[in-house]
Amino acid sequence: MRATGTSSGSAIDEAGFSRFHLKVTAYSAGGMFCDGYMLGIVAPALAAYGRQHEVSALWSGLIGASALIGLFLGSIAFGWLTDRVGRQTMYLADLLIFVVGSLAQALVTDVAWLFALRLLLGVAIGADYAISPTLLAEFAPRRHRGWMMSSLNVVWTVGYVASFGVGYLLSGLGSDAWRWMLASSALPALVVALLRLGTPESPRWLVRQGRAEEALRVLRTHVDPHATPADLVADAEERADYRSLFRAGLRRRVIFGGLFWFCQVVPYFALFTFLPDVLAALRIEGDLAQSVLVNVFLLAGAVVGMVLVNRVNRRPFVLWSFGLLAAVTAVLGLWTGAPPLAVVALFGSFAFVVSAAQSLALVYPSELFPTGVRASGVGVVTAFSRIGAAIGTFLLPLAVAGLGVHSTTLIAAGVLLLGLLASAAWAPETRMLTLGDAGRG
Questions:
Q1: Residue 316 domain-assigned?
Q2: Residue 174 clears pLDDT 70, i.e. is over it
Q3: Is the pLDDT of residue 280 over 80?
Q4: Does 5 map to a domain?
Q5: Is residue 332 part of a domain?
Q6: Phi and psi torsions of 311, nearest 5°
Q7: Half-sphere exposure of 113 (CA within 13 A, CB side)
Q8: Which of 62, 65, 97 is nearest to 78 (CA)?
Q9: Average pLDDT of the segment spanning 113-129
Q10: Where does the chain cross the membrane (predicted)?
Q11: CATH for 431
């Protein structure tokens, strides 16, 4: 029996897991599948494109980073917009951009147009990074919030790994194989867009807009038929606005959220966007199939992370994951004569741990901020992290060419060590708190 009105949004926080919760988790995760797929498919597509066209290291880095640059812009702009116009409207709009942008990639004639379209898709992906976790968090019961939110990472990883598998299957289609690879993301995006039709607005957001009756109606229809206005009183009384993100109370959370995610994704996207090239530089023989094999570890890690995030407190989880990742990456950088089997095993270990740690990246940010600025806060944190991802992806081919793969890997280890230090200083514990209490700190 829940204690009505005892905490922020108690009807939501103390609810049991229902069919509605399964649906909103699946629809949010579907967007993340598309996100992972679109960000991953560029690796096999670039490899196929490069076999037919001469691509400089500069353009290779720009195309690899283009979606991440767009993601930076989209997460900030659409995070703010989602807090202004609502979660529901933006929940569908970004998927429509996915469909149109994906199909348009099949029509490009040169790398400049490909860069522009990947940039546009990145904006839509950034929007979904801000929207999907925010909407899901605002419907998630406290006891199930961890695994519901971290399931987004599992499905994101499924999409990312699937993109390599599809790329491998389509690689034999001749000179236009890269076009089919890039356009293939339109299909899952269309399916998810259709499924999201009819998703209700967040009652937490509605009551913040003075639409208390509508909020209560959504709450009673989808969560608890016995809900009362007291269940939403804390969200109604909240006074957070966009400027509060940069005041003393929330500023440290913005910095921590952005920095911990930044330090996770710099090596993640840099190494895995160009995985075939990195393995070749390490004298590991094989083609795209080798990349698919390593990516299986990503999927296994995501599943384990989803289990752990509901059982292990947030702070020790983030500290241990950064420590393990820094150690594995340092070994990869220092062991210059490692045999191929050891290199693949180390890459597999890195993939497993970083994927498990990414569970926190889709749970933590939504817990750091109050309802009034939750999407904005998640958007700013996401944008900060994507600066690192874009820089890492852009610089990796240049760094490998100029410094060598081992020195580049040691730089990645240093970034992970920075993440460990930042988390030790600032990581809060939010696992057992209601969403309202977690956001207030």
A1: yes
A2: yes
A3: no
A4: no
A5: yes
A6: -120, -20
A7: 10
A8: 97
A9: 86
A10: 24-46, 58-82, 89-107, 152-171, 177-198, 254-276, 288-310, 317-335, 341-364, 376-399, 405-427
A11: 1.20.1250.20
